[in-house]
Amino acid sequence: MTAIDDLTRLRHLQDAAREIIDFMSGKTRDDLANNRILVLAVVKDLEIIGEAAGRISAECRTRHPEISWAAMVGMRNRLIYAYFSIDVDIVWDTVTNDLAPLIEQLERVIQEES
Predict the structure, then answer these.
(1) Model pLDDT for residues 33-72, shown as the tens digit of each residue
(2) What is the pTM of this model?
(3) What is the 3-state composition of the chain as percent helix, strand, coil, each rounded to the nearest 5?
(4) Rounded to whole angstroms, how far apart are CA atoms 25 and 43?
(5) d(CA 58, CA 26)
(6) What is the C-alpha to C-alpha distance for residues 56 and 92, in angstroms, rounded to an integer?
(7) How many angstroms separate the CA atoms of 112 and 87, rounded?
(8) How far is Cα 24 from Cα 28, in angstroms, rounded to an integer?
């Protein structure tokens, strides 16, 4: 995989994470739990994050061990294979605790990889 491919995928990761933050702005856990459309939108972007993370080259992943590549791929797999038993608490925890730091990390990685 070339650096441009990794850079594109890193931007996909960042865009999906930012989109989730936008979707969830001003929302509570109950808002998420009670809005199927919101859940599906957030889950789709989490799947995109995991899919893009899984396609980042081994070289890039090795250069940036501060990124939780395996966790993102694992979340994607959990969401894909357990599609009718999505745990809203796990999604909420991911959105509220993991995405903002991920976006910051990705900003640094994208700058370094550019």
Answers:
(1) 999 999 999 999 999 999 999 999 999 999 999 999 999 9
(2) 0.91
(3) 80, 0, 20
(4) 16
(5) 37
(6) 25
(7) 35
(8) 8
